[in-house]
Each structure stands twice: as C-alpha cells, then as structure tokens.
Amino acid sequence: MIVSGTERHDAEPPLLLFDDDDWLDVYDSVSRMLDHLEYPAIDEVVFVADANGRAVHLSVAGEEVVIEGVAASPQLNELRERVETFFDRWTDGAPPKRSDDPREYVQSVVSRYSAVPMRSKKRK
C-alpha cells in the first residue's frame, strides 16, 4: 500500500535516512522527510529507519516521494552498521553505544547526531 505524507502510516519519527555516501539525515516528522526528498534524489537513499528501528520503504508515485510500507520488525543490525559507518566516515566522534532496545538506540543516535561535529570527507 502506498501512502503519502498526509495519510496514516506506521512510520514513527524520528526517521533516520542514509544515502549512498553513508551520510545520515535525521527527520523529526514524516512530512518533513517526504517534503525534503524528491525524484531523482530518492535513488540515493539506501536505508530509512523509524523510531522503532524498522525499515521504511520509499518509492515514487508520479512526482511525489511516498512511503510504500514499514517493516514489521526492527532491522537493528543493519541500522547499527549504518550508524557506525556514518560516525566513522563523517564525524570525529564515536557512535552511540549499541543497545538491544531499538527505541532506545534510535534516541541515542539522534542525541549523538546533534552533539557531534560533521566533517566534509574522511581524513586519512
């Protein structure tokens, strides 16, 4: 089922969006994320997770980016790997500590994301 940002869906903010450069963007609402995304930039999105660590599947309907569906269970291992890659590649800080509680982990990612300076490229 395809839903737009104004219709009811299961994705719960905050939303963590990862692109093909391992960059992370954090959105505090579904509508802000969908408003920010546009075709063809959506092709660069490789993974989106909601507050429960579940994968959010996006697609394009006409000229609008929409949520196609939300996974039934958390993808915590993939989320942790992507978070750790982002922090290693794009920040000078350590990623948040791993947690087995998806909601707790997503909140720690959001807090850490807000507190750590970003850099433009990996230093060698």
UniProtKB/TrEMBL annotation:
It comes from the Bacteria. This is Uncharacterized protein.
